[in-house]
Amino acid sequence: MSALHSISSPSAPMLAGRRTRPLRPRRLREINASGECPSQGVLALLEEHAQHHPLNRALVMLDGQDTRAVTYVELAQRVKRLAGWLSARFPDGGEPIGVLSASSPDWGIVALATIASRNVLVPLDVSMESDALAAALGRVAPAITFSSTACYDLARALASPAGEILCMDDAHLDATLPQTIAAASGSKVGKPAAGTALMAFTSGTTATPKAVEISFDNLLFQIRALTRCFALRPSDRLLSLLPMHHMLEFTTGFLCPLWSGAQVHYLNSLLPDEALTRIRALGITRVVTVPAWLALLKHTLERNARDGNTRTPSTTALRNHARRALGADFEHFVCGGAPLADHVADFFETVGAPVIQGYGLTETGPVVSTNTRSGFRRGSVGRPLAGTEIGISDAGEILVRGPHVAGRYRLDTGAEKIVADDKGWFHTGDLGHVDVDGFLYVTGRIKSTIVLASGKNVQPEEIEAHLQACDAITECCAIALGDGNSARGEEIGLVVVATPDFLNACEKTADDVTQTLQRRVRECLTTLAAHKRPRSVIVRDQPLPRTATGKLRRAELTEWARARTETQS
Predict the structure, then answer these.
(1) Structural domains of the chain sorted by starting position, each given as residue range(s) with its CATH number in brackets
(2) Beta-carbon neighbour count of residue 108 at 10 Å?
(3) pTM to 2 decimal places
(4) Residue 430's pLDDT band (boundaries 50, 70, 90)?
(5) CA distances (Å), 44 to each of 96, 167, 257, 420, 476, in order?
(6) Contact 391, 368 (CB under 8 A)
(7) Count of alpha carbons within 13 Å of 367, Cβ hemisphere only?
C-alpha cells in the first residue's frame, strides 16, 4: 500500500450569528458506542425531542398546495405504536421488513419503527423494473412489505417475494394495527446477521444491485460523525429531494436531522423552480442532493436572472438574484453520489450558496469523507471521517477501513459474502489519491478504465471533466468502443447531448446538428492529450441514463452506443 491516512474530523464550524453546537439528547448518551443500538434508543430519541419541543414539526409532506406535518410528539406516538405491533408480531426481531414508497413521513415512521423493534429495514427503489424488484425481494425475503397507495398494485403483483403486503398510508395503517397479530412467518432465505439494522441495495450501475447488511453500529457511527461535521441544530430545516432508499438521503437527510431535532420537508418533485419556491418560502437551511440536480438548478438560476434578456447578467446581479431565490436562511448544499463538475461548484460558491461535497458508497454506510465549512479543498471530496482510515493501493485503488464498513453481502444464491478483506479493508473499485493535508481526490473507476491498443489507460472522467466548459452540450459520457480483444484494442467513444440553445442556433442557421456539434466538441478537446481524444463522437437526443443519485449508467450507454455504431457501419 503506497499511502495510508487516519484523519480526525475537524471541529464544528462557527457560522456568524448562530449557535452551531449540535443537539446531544441526554438520554442518548447512555447508548453504548461499541455495542448494538438498544431497541429503546430510537424511542428515547423521539420522546426526548417531544418533551423539549413538542410542537416542533419533524416530518413535513409538501404536495401541491397541501401540507401535512408530523410533530415530534405525533412522531414518537406513531413510531412507538407501530414498533410495539412489530415487536409483538416478531418477538425475536431480525425479520426483514420492506418499504416500497416514494419519500414521505409515512416512510420515515415505518423505518424508525422497524429499527426500534429490532427488525431489519429493507428500503426498495420504486423506479426499479418489476423483474429487478422481484429479484431483489427474493434475495432478502421480507416477512412484510409496507407499500404506499401509489405502489400498492406493484407490490401485489410481486406476490410471494414481497411477503405480506400492508398499505402504510395513514388511514390504512391505522386500520391494520388493531387486528389480531398473526404468527410470524419468518424469513425464507435465512435471517440477517445479529445487529443488522437494514439491508440496502447498491446502485447497480454496471451489474445487478447487491444487498448490503448495515448494522446498528454502522448507523450510529455515521450519525455521530456527520452531526459533528455538519453541526446540525434544532432550528435547521432540510429539503428532501433524493429517494429515501438511498443511503445518503437516509443518513444525512433523515437520521441526522431527527437526531438533532431538526425538520425534514419532503417534496416529490425535482423541478428546480418548484424547489426554489419551497426553499425560500419555508426558510430551508440545507439541501442534500446530487450533482445532476445542482446542474439543473444552476441553469434555472441563470435563466431566471436573465429574465428574457439575451445578455449574461453580471456576477453581482447573478449573486443577488440567487440569494433572493434561495432566501435569507439558506446556508449550503450537501452533495454526493457522483462527481461534481468544477463549474457547478464554482457557480454556487460565487453566489454564496456553497456545495459541501463528500464521498461514499452503500457498503460504507455510506459516507467515507466529506468537506466541511471550516475544512474545504476545491476538487476534493474532503477528509475521512474521524476514526476511519483511507488507504491507496499500489494500483491506485481507494481502500476504506473503519466502524462504518458494512459486514456482509446477500447474494443471488442466498449465500453471504464478507464486504471487507481479511485485514478489514473495503476495496471501493474507485481510483484516487490523498494530498499532504489528508484531502481525498477521486479520479476514476477501475471498471470504467479504457485500455487502448498502446497499453495506455484512459479515465473517462478526465475527458468528461475537460468538456465542462463546452457551452454546446448539457452532458457527456466517455465509453470504450470495440471488444478490447482485437489488435486495435479499445477505442474511446464519446456520447454527447446538445443544449437547447445550441439546437435553436442550428435550426436558425440550417446547420446539421450532428456535424456541427461533433466539430465543436473536437475543438474543445484540442488541448487534451492526443491519445485521450475520442475517435467517435455520438450525438444523443435524449438525456443520458443515470441512477437515482445521478451516476451515469455506463454499461447501458455503452451497449446503446455500440448498437448505434454497428447499425450505421
Answers:
(1) 449-568 (3.30.300.30)
(2) 25
(3) 0.84
(4) very high
(5) 23, 27, 15, 33, 48
(6) no
(7) 36
